[in-house]
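Team,

Forwarding the record for the chain on the shared tracking sheet. I've put the sequence and predicted structure together so nobody has to dig through attachments.
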Amino acid sequence: MPLPDRDEVLVTRGLTGARISALDIDVRGGELVGVASAEPGEAARVLGLVFGSVPRREGTISIRGRELARSSGPAESCRAGMQFVDDRLVCSIPSFTVRENVTVGRLREISGRWRLKRGSEKAVAAELIQAFGIVPANGESVFAGLSGGNQQKGVLARALSSQPHLLLLDDPTRGVDVGAKTAIYRILRDAAERGMAALMCSSDFEELAALCHRVIVLRNGRVVGTLGGPELTAEALLERCYVGSESSVSA
């Protein structure tokens, strides 16, 4: 995909912690940037460092020019405009209804002074269920009863409904069928076209090559290359993970 011509949303300099060393990342509005590694969990630790769920030892993180304190955690990251989509059962309340799960990101809109506005909540839920293609299209269904793909669409609906500046995605199509995967790709591409920035990791290198404008490749906690444009293929990512040099390939 061509690179968007928009302002920087995420900038990290010297980001260090959790066996990740001196990582510099720049993500612009409308850009999907991947992080790939052959070491299990290494790319996900980068997302945790950015979000504040993994302690940062050194370095800086800025969201749209606002630098986050080293002690910042997930709550401060959310206030700065980040949303994190991890395991769908971690990012949801499975025993609650679809309506309750997808409207969490819009609480200010659907709340009165003392309680939720049920009519507004149901209207927002119906809007999101339709927009994200959640099946069954019934806000009163128990979230745990949905298929994995529809649960994932529900989690994305909740995250994107708050219109984040930066979406962090950890294996966004893990355990879903082909139809749901195609729908999720469309959702993420549409969000990027509207200007959202995303940083994602995936155990599926084909997915990273298909979705991302460029992919940062890590080995032993350090960047060993960046692939983009026609050079960005699953095969090239795999090769760079194992035999890449410390140089960066221009996107």
